[in-house]
Amino acid sequence: MKRLLLIAAVLSLTAAAGATEYKRADYVARLQTCEAILQSTMLYPASAIPADVLHRAKGIVIVNQVQIGLLFGVKDGWGVALVKKPNSQWSLPVFIQAGELSFGLQAGGKSIETIYVLMDDASTRILFKSRFKFGLDAKAVAGPLAAEAERSTETFTAQVLVYTNVNGFYAGATVKTGTIAPLVAATQQFYNTDYGIPEILFSDWVAPQPEAQPLMNDLQRLSP
Fold first, then answer.
1. Is the pLDDT score of 72 beyond 60?
2. What count of other Cβ atoms lies within 10 Å of the Cβ of residue 174?
3. pLDDT at site 73
4. CA angle 69-73-76, nearest 5°?
5. Ranges of each domain in the chain
6. pTM beyond cutoff 0.90
7. What CA–CA distance (Å, rounded) separates 46 from 147?
């Protein structure tokens, strides 16, 4: 009974967190965290995402999650998504929420940092959905490391390459992820606009915010 009560408490806290209204400083902190995840992933050349992968990429999703489990597993988090526009410039980042509920014997908690590299235009368009799953709405496989770049060409047939916990893994295995949902209202609030996710990502109608520029600059530098 105590265990079930604790599970209920965890689920309640997760739901409450999703309902919280955040201030601009909270969104800035999320952007900075996602920038740090990208930088730490690319810190060591041998374990980084290959430059050719980022050069060919059509989009990227950076997610920071916390997983807590007892009998139920709760994975909740947030992140940002960007696309590469036809002029090869990276878009403004939009905010997303990422969560998952699983069943089975499990215990403990951990932090999970994941980068999804979107390799075709179709995978970027699923960012417009209210909810989606990589591996279900788009084929996802574990991405190659820079040290294995010579073997990476066969993974380019996948729509999404996945890098988890800073290190990438080249296994060719299918990857299933939790549900990801664009945070439309949060993104509109941050950019002070009424435009939707497609316009914010693909148009030049929304003014960049200075706090988003470092992440955009990093991506531009890494995928010239």
1. no
2. 12
3. 46
4. 100
5. 21-222
6. no
7. 5
Cβ contacts of residue 158 below 8 Å, gap of 6+? Answer: 119, 139, 140, 141
User: What pLDDT score was predicted for residue 32?
Assistant: 95
Pairwise CA distance, residues 84 & 62, whole Å: 14
pLDDT of residue 108: 46
Residue type, 150: E
Identify the residue whose tokens are 């992968």: 53
For residue 156, the model assigns a pLDDT of 58
Query: Strand order of the sheet with strand 140-142?
Result: 140-142, 160-164, 108-118, 59-69, 72-83, 94-103, 179-182
CA-based torsion, 172, 178, 183, 186: positive or negative: negative
Distance between CA 140 and CA 159 in Å, rounded?
6
Instruction: Identify any residues that bridge with 78 across adjacent strands, giving them in sequence order.
Output: 64, 97
The candidate with the shortest Cα–Cα distance to 76, out of 28, 14, 27, is 14
DSSP 132: B
C-alpha distances out from residue 17 to 63, 78, 80, 123, Å: 16, 11, 17, 28
CB atoms within 10 A of CB 113: 22
The kind and range of the H/E element at 218 are: helix 213-222
